[in-house]
Structures are given as structure tokens and as C-alpha cells.
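BUG: 3D viewer hangs when loading the predicted structure for this chain

Environment: internal workstation, default settings.
Expected: structure renders.
Actual: progress bar stalls at 90%.

Input used:
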Amino acid sequence: MRDKKGFTLIELLIVVVIIGILAAIAIPKFSATREKAYFSAMKSDLHNLASQEEIYYSDYYSYTNSTVDLAFTNTEAVTVTIAATTSGWSATATHSALGTAEGCAMYYGTVATPPTVGTATPTAPGDLACTS
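C-alpha cells produced before the viewer hung:
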């Protein structure tokens, strides 16, 4: 008599269905975590930019649009746009993996109009406003 060992087809199908259900639950949670990471990168870049602008201001008594003058390097896939005058600066940050209407904005000093990304507009100098 032969000793049959192994799993039946039904047992294997049940395991595959359970793995599919778990994956369906886990994948959206990972997507939300990835989006949080994108916003954290944008916030970090704007805080670093603020520090570099203030260091530049202490040396030259004006702000600059040039990331080279600031020795500022943005995070990969994050685009930072700067608008500066002698009395203030504003900046927006967007991530290439997100839509153009999603991002963060910040300003210091005197600016003509506060920067806006999507629906996010900082309410006071030094505030960081993000769409999510």
C-alpha cells in the first residue's frame, strides 16, 4: 500500500484565498504610508531651506532664489520652488509621485502673497501648510 503525503487541492486553494484577503487589506495601508513619507520629505526640505535662507540672510542681509548660493540640495523626486526678495522669501515643494495640486508651502518675512499649493496656504510667516 502506498502512503500518500501532501496537501489536497482544496487545502491549497484555501491558503491562496486567505493570502489574497490579507494582501487586499495590507496593500492600501502601505500606499498611505508611502504618501506620508512623500509629505515628510517635502516638509523636511522646506525646513532645511528655511535654515539655509536664514544663514544666507545673516551673511548678506537679503534672501536668494539660488539653491547653489544656499548650498541646498533637495530630496530626490521633490521639487522646491523659491521666490525671494531682500525682505522675505516663499517656497513650495511638490513630489513627482503626487499630483501637482498636492504639496507644501512656507514663507518668511514680507511677501506679496503667501505661496499656495492646491488648497494649502500658510497663515503666518514660518508656518508650514500641506495639502494632506
